[in-house]
Protein backbone atom coordinates (compact mmCIF):
# COMPACT_ATOMS: atom_id res chain seq x y z
CA UNK A 1 0.00 0.00 0.00
CA UNK A 2 1.19 3.49 -0.85
CA UNK A 3 0.54 6.08 1.84
CA UNK A 4 0.53 9.87 1.38
CA UNK A 5 3.81 11.56 0.55
CA UNK A 6 6.55 11.44 3.15
CA UNK A 7 7.10 14.38 5.46
CA UNK A 8 10.30 15.28 3.58
CA UNK A 9 8.25 15.93 0.43
CA UNK A 10 5.65 18.11 2.11
CA UNK A 11 6.47 21.83 2.39
CA UNK A 12 6.22 23.10 5.94
CA UNK A 13 6.45 26.54 7.57
CA UNK A 14 8.32 28.20 4.74
CA UNK A 15 7.02 31.47 6.16
CA UNK A 16 6.85 31.96 9.93
CA UNK A 17 5.00 34.55 12.06
CA UNK A 18 8.22 36.47 12.65
CA UNK A 19 8.86 36.75 8.91
CA UNK A 20 5.53 36.29 7.10
CA UNK A 21 4.82 36.51 3.40
CA UNK A 22 3.06 39.70 2.35
CA UNK A 23 0.76 38.61 -0.44
CA UNK A 24 -1.52 40.76 -2.59
CA UNK A 25 -5.19 39.97 -3.21
CA UNK A 26 -5.85 39.58 -6.94
CA UNK A 27 -9.43 38.27 -6.80
CA UNK A 28 -12.12 38.54 -4.14
CA UNK A 29 -15.83 37.82 -4.36
CA UNK A 30 -18.77 36.43 -2.39
CA UNK A 31 -19.55 32.75 -2.92
CA UNK A 32 -22.95 32.61 -1.23
CA UNK A 33 -26.12 34.11 -2.72
CA UNK A 34 -26.68 37.82 -2.01
CA UNK A 35 -29.69 37.02 0.17
CA UNK A 36 -28.00 34.26 2.16
CA UNK A 37 -27.35 35.11 5.83
CA UNK A 38 -23.96 33.43 5.45
CA UNK A 39 -21.14 35.54 4.03
CA UNK A 40 -18.54 33.27 2.46
CA UNK A 41 -15.78 34.80 0.34
CA UNK A 42 -13.41 33.44 -2.29
CA UNK A 43 -9.98 35.08 -1.96
CA UNK A 44 -7.05 34.61 -4.31
CA UNK A 45 -3.53 35.77 -3.43
CA UNK A 46 -0.61 36.41 -5.76
CA UNK A 47 2.37 34.42 -4.40
CA UNK A 48 4.43 34.54 -7.60
CA UNK A 49 7.27 36.56 -6.07
CA UNK A 50 7.66 34.23 -3.09
CA UNK A 51 9.17 30.85 -2.21
CA UNK A 52 5.78 29.53 -1.06
CA UNK A 53 4.94 25.97 -2.06
CA UNK A 54 2.04 23.87 -0.81
CA UNK A 55 0.21 20.63 -1.54
CA UNK A 56 -3.46 19.75 -1.59
CA UNK A 57 -4.90 19.42 1.92
CA UNK A 58 -2.57 21.87 3.67
CA UNK A 59 -3.50 25.08 5.48
CA UNK A 60 -2.16 28.63 5.38
CA UNK A 61 -1.82 30.97 8.33
CA UNK A 62 -3.17 34.53 8.34
CA UNK A 63 -1.96 37.24 10.71
CA UNK A 64 -4.81 39.77 11.05
CA UNK A 65 -3.72 43.35 11.67
CA UNK A 66 -4.35 45.15 14.93
CA UNK A 67 -4.28 44.23 18.60
CA UNK A 68 -6.59 42.42 20.99
CA UNK A 69 -8.15 43.87 24.16
CA UNK A 70 -4.88 43.29 26.01
CA UNK A 71 -2.83 45.28 23.54
CA UNK A 72 -1.21 42.20 22.01
CA UNK A 73 -1.12 41.42 18.28
CA UNK A 74 -4.02 39.29 17.13
CA UNK A 75 -3.23 35.60 17.03
CA UNK A 76 -2.57 33.61 13.90
CA UNK A 77 -5.56 31.89 12.27
CA UNK A 78 -5.36 28.87 9.98
CA UNK A 79 -7.44 28.33 6.85
CA UNK A 80 -7.58 25.33 4.54
CA UNK A 81 -6.13 26.05 1.12
CA UNK A 82 -8.79 25.79 -1.60
CA UNK A 83 -6.47 25.65 -4.61
CA UNK A 84 -4.32 22.79 -5.94
CA UNK A 85 -0.56 22.87 -5.44
CA UNK A 86 -0.14 24.42 -8.88
CA UNK A 87 -2.54 27.22 -7.89
CA UNK A 88 -5.75 28.10 -9.69
CA UNK A 89 -3.53 29.66 -12.33
CA UNK A 90 -1.88 26.30 -13.02
CA UNK A 91 1.64 27.62 -12.54
CA UNK A 92 1.98 27.83 -8.75
CA UNK A 93 1.66 31.61 -8.70
CA UNK A 94 -1.58 31.86 -6.70
CA UNK A 95 -3.12 30.61 -3.47
CA UNK A 96 -6.85 30.50 -2.78
CA UNK A 97 -8.89 30.35 0.44
CA UNK A 98 -12.63 30.44 1.07
CA UNK A 99 -13.63 32.08 4.33
CA UNK A 100 -16.93 32.44 6.17
CA UNK A 101 -17.47 35.58 8.20
CA UNK A 102 -17.81 34.24 11.74
CA UNK A 103 -20.74 35.79 13.61
CA UNK A 104 -21.88 34.75 17.08
CA UNK A 105 -24.82 36.18 19.00
CA UNK A 106 -25.00 36.56 22.75
CA UNK A 107 -28.33 34.93 23.59
CA UNK A 108 -28.76 37.05 26.70
CA UNK A 109 -28.16 40.46 25.11
CA UNK A 110 -28.65 39.79 21.41
CA UNK A 111 -25.33 41.47 20.69
CA UNK A 112 -23.44 40.24 17.64
CA UNK A 113 -19.73 39.46 17.71
CA UNK A 114 -17.81 39.22 14.46
CA UNK A 115 -14.71 37.08 14.08
CA UNK A 116 -11.57 39.19 13.93
CA UNK A 117 -9.72 37.39 11.17
CA UNK A 118 -12.67 36.15 9.14
CA UNK A 119 -14.15 39.68 9.03
CA UNK A 120 -10.78 41.10 8.06
CA UNK A 121 -10.50 38.62 5.18
CA UNK A 122 -14.08 39.05 4.00
CA UNK A 123 -13.65 42.84 3.97
CA UNK A 124 -10.48 42.79 1.86
CA UNK A 125 -10.43 44.36 -1.59
CA UNK A 126 -8.42 43.50 -4.67
CA UNK A 127 -5.01 45.14 -4.25
CA UNK A 128 -4.94 44.78 -0.45
CA UNK A 129 -2.22 42.67 1.12
CA UNK A 130 -2.20 40.09 3.92
CA UNK A 131 0.55 38.58 6.02
CA UNK A 132 0.60 34.83 5.46
CA UNK A 133 2.49 32.01 7.17
CA UNK A 134 3.00 28.32 6.48
CA UNK A 135 1.99 26.15 4.86
CA UNK A 136 1.20 23.64 7.60
CA UNK A 137 -0.36 20.20 7.76
CA UNK A 138 0.81 16.70 6.97
CA UNK A 139 -2.15 14.55 7.99
CA UNK A 140 -4.89 15.65 5.58
CA UNK A 141 -3.06 15.68 2.29
CA UNK A 142 -4.25 14.01 -0.88
CA UNK A 143 -2.90 10.46 -1.24
CA UNK A 144 -0.17 9.95 -3.81
CA UNK A 145 -1.41 6.46 -4.66
CA UNK A 146 -2.36 6.26 -8.34
CA UNK A 147 -6.04 5.63 -9.07
CA UNK A 148 -7.06 6.07 -5.42
CA UNK A 149 -10.75 6.18 -4.60
CA UNK A 150 -11.62 9.37 -2.71
CA UNK A 151 -14.62 9.67 -0.39
CA UNK A 152 -14.90 13.32 0.71
CA UNK A 153 -17.42 14.67 3.20
CA UNK A 154 -17.66 18.44 3.71
CA UNK A 155 -19.85 21.05 5.32
CA UNK A 156 -19.56 24.74 4.46
CA UNK A 157 -16.02 25.97 3.97
CA UNK A 158 -14.86 22.43 4.67
CA UNK A 159 -15.17 22.14 0.89
CA UNK A 160 -11.83 23.96 0.52
CA UNK A 161 -9.39 21.01 0.50
CA UNK A 162 -11.73 18.95 -1.68
CA UNK A 163 -11.92 21.70 -4.28
CA UNK A 164 -8.13 21.34 -4.40
CA UNK A 165 -8.32 17.53 -4.56
CA UNK A 166 -10.80 17.52 -7.44
CA UNK A 167 -8.93 20.19 -9.35
CA UNK A 168 -5.73 18.17 -9.20
CA UNK A 169 -7.45 14.91 -10.13
CA UNK A 170 -9.41 16.19 -13.11
CA UNK A 171 -7.05 18.85 -14.43
CA UNK A 172 -3.65 17.26 -13.82
CA UNK A 173 -4.32 13.54 -13.45
CA UNK A 174 -6.95 12.97 -16.12
CA UNK A 175 -5.55 9.50 -16.84
CA UNK A 176 -6.47 8.23 -13.37
CA UNK A 177 -9.43 5.90 -12.97
CA UNK A 178 -10.18 6.11 -9.22
CA UNK A 179 -13.66 7.07 -8.08
CA UNK A 180 -14.44 10.43 -6.44
CA UNK A 181 -17.42 10.74 -4.10
CA UNK A 182 -18.04 14.23 -2.72
CA UNK A 183 -20.76 14.84 -0.13
CA UNK A 184 -21.41 18.52 0.57
CA UNK A 185 -23.72 19.87 3.25
CA UNK A 186 -25.06 23.39 3.87
CA UNK A 187 -28.14 25.09 5.29
CA UNK A 188 -29.76 25.91 1.94
CA UNK A 189 -28.98 25.91 -1.77
CA UNK A 190 -28.02 29.56 -1.41
CA UNK A 191 -24.91 28.30 0.38
CA UNK A 192 -23.81 25.76 -2.25
CA UNK A 193 -20.18 26.85 -2.54
CA UNK A 194 -18.55 26.40 -5.95
CA UNK A 195 -21.75 24.83 -7.30
CA UNK A 196 -21.07 25.18 -11.03
CA UNK A 197 -17.45 24.13 -10.67
CA UNK A 198 -18.27 21.02 -8.65
CA UNK A 199 -21.16 19.96 -10.85
CA UNK A 200 -18.91 20.20 -13.90
CA UNK A 201 -16.62 17.55 -12.43
CA UNK A 202 -19.49 15.06 -12.64
CA UNK A 203 -18.90 14.94 -16.38
CA UNK A 204 -15.90 12.77 -15.51
CA UNK A 205 -16.52 9.05 -15.15
CA UNK A 206 -16.61 7.93 -11.54
CA UNK A 207 -17.23 11.38 -10.03
CA UNK A 208 -20.29 11.89 -7.85
CA UNK A 209 -21.32 15.15 -6.13
CA UNK A 210 -24.12 14.66 -3.61
CA UNK A 211 -25.64 17.47 -1.54
CA UNK A 212 -27.61 17.82 1.69
CA UNK A 213 -29.40 21.08 2.52
CA UNK A 214 -30.48 20.80 6.14
CA UNK A 215 -33.15 23.53 6.15
CA UNK A 216 -34.78 22.46 2.89
CA UNK A 217 -34.71 18.66 2.95
CA UNK A 218 -35.80 15.86 5.30
CA UNK A 219 -34.12 12.56 6.02
CA UNK A 220 -35.87 9.18 6.19
CA UNK A 221 -36.93 9.88 9.79
CA UNK A 222 -38.53 13.19 8.84
CA UNK A 223 -35.82 15.27 10.48
CA UNK A 224 -33.34 17.67 8.94
CA UNK A 225 -31.16 16.19 6.23
CA UNK A 226 -27.48 16.42 7.08
CA UNK A 227 -24.53 15.35 5.02
CA UNK A 228 -23.96 12.19 7.07
CA UNK A 229 -27.47 11.03 6.16
CA UNK A 230 -26.68 11.37 2.46
CA UNK A 231 -23.47 9.43 2.93
CA UNK A 232 -25.24 6.58 4.71
CA UNK A 233 -27.83 6.44 1.90
CA UNK A 234 -24.90 5.22 -0.21
CA UNK A 235 -23.34 3.39 2.72
CA UNK A 236 -23.28 -0.12 1.23
CA UNK A 237 -21.46 1.06 -1.91
CA UNK A 238 -19.03 3.18 0.08
CA UNK A 239 -18.35 0.41 2.57
CA UNK A 240 -17.41 -1.91 -0.28
CA UNK A 241 -15.02 0.79 -1.51
CA UNK A 242 -13.51 1.14 1.96
CA UNK A 243 -12.64 -2.54 1.88
CA UNK A 244 -10.26 -1.74 -0.97
CA UNK A 245 -6.76 -0.63 0.15
CA UNK A 246 -6.73 2.17 -2.42
CA UNK A 247 -9.77 3.95 -0.90
CA UNK A 248 -9.34 7.00 1.37
CA UNK A 249 -12.02 8.84 3.32
CA UNK A 250 -11.75 12.51 4.32
CA UNK A 251 -14.10 14.50 6.57
CA UNK A 252 -13.79 18.29 6.80
CA UNK A 253 -16.16 20.75 8.41
CA UNK A 254 -18.26 21.15 11.54
CA UNK A 255 -17.40 19.16 14.63
CA UNK A 256 -19.88 16.37 15.23
CA UNK A 257 -20.06 15.17 11.61
CA UNK A 258 -17.97 12.09 12.24
CA UNK A 259 -20.25 10.51 14.85
CA UNK A 260 -23.16 9.91 12.48
CA UNK A 261 -20.86 8.57 9.79
CA UNK A 262 -19.24 6.14 12.21
CA UNK A 263 -22.63 4.92 13.44
CA UNK A 264 -23.82 4.30 9.90
CA UNK A 265 -20.74 2.36 8.86
CA UNK A 266 -20.82 0.35 12.08
CA UNK A 267 -24.38 -0.74 11.30
CA UNK A 268 -23.37 -1.82 7.79
CA UNK A 269 -20.36 -3.73 9.13
CA UNK A 270 -22.58 -5.59 11.61
CA UNK A 271 -24.97 -6.63 8.84
CA UNK A 272 -22.01 -8.11 6.99
CA UNK A 273 -20.60 -9.84 10.06
CA UNK A 274 -17.54 -7.58 10.16
CA UNK A 275 -16.10 -6.30 13.43
CA UNK A 276 -16.29 -2.54 12.86
CA UNK A 277 -13.81 -1.64 15.59
CA UNK A 278 -11.15 -3.86 14.04
CA UNK A 279 -11.95 -2.60 10.55
CA UNK A 280 -11.89 1.04 11.69
CA UNK A 281 -8.55 0.56 13.47
CA UNK A 282 -7.16 -0.84 10.22
CA UNK A 283 -8.38 2.19 8.25
CA UNK A 284 -6.64 4.54 10.68
CA UNK A 285 -3.46 2.47 10.83
CA UNK A 286 -3.27 2.50 7.03
CA UNK A 287 -3.86 6.29 7.05
CA UNK A 288 -7.05 5.94 5.04
CA UNK A 289 -9.41 7.77 7.45
CA UNK A 290 -8.79 11.49 7.85
CA UNK A 291 -10.78 14.02 9.88
CA UNK A 292 -10.35 17.78 10.16
CA UNK A 293 -13.19 19.46 12.04
CA UNK A 294 -13.70 22.76 13.86
Fold and architecture overview:
This protein folds into 2 domains: 7-136, Elongation Factor Tu (Ef-tu), domain 3 (Beta Barrel), CATH 2.40.30.10; 149-293, Nucleotide-binding domain of ferredoxin-NADP reductase (FNR) module (Rossmann fold, 3-Layer(aba) Sandwich). 36% of the residues are buried. The chain has helices at 116-122, 160-171, 195-201, 227-233, 235-242, 257-271, 276-285; strands at 21-30, 40-46, 59-63, 77-80, 94-100, 103-105, 112-114, 129-136, 149-155, 180-186, 207-213, 247-253, 289-293. The chain is α/β, with parallel strands linked by helices. Residues 1-8 have low confidence and may be disordered.
Compile the SSE list and pairings.
Blueprint: E1 21-30, E2 40-46, E3 59-63, E4 77-80, E5 94-100, E6 103-105, E7 112-114, H1 116-122, E8 129-136, E9 149-155, H2 160-171, E10 180-186, H3 195-201, E11 207-213, H4 227-233, H5 235-242, E12 247-253, H6 257-271, H7 276-285, E13 289-293
Parallel strand pairs: 9-10, 9-12, 10-11, 12-13
Antiparallel strand pairs: 1-2, 1-8, 2-5, 3-4, 3-8, 6-7
Which terms summarize this structure?
globular; 2 domains; 294 residues; 5-stranded parallel sheet; 6-stranded antiparallel sheet; alpha/beta; Elongation Factor Tu (Ef-tu), domain 3
Amino acid sequence: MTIPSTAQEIPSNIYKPGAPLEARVIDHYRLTAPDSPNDVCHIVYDVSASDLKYVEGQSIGVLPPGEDANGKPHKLRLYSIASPGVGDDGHGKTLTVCVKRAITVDEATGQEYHGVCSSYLCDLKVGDTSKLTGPVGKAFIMPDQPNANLIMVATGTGIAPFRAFLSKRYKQLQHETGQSWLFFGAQTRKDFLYEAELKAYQENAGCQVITAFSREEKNAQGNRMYVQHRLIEHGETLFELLKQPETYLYICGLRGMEAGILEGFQEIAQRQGIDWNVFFDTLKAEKRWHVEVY
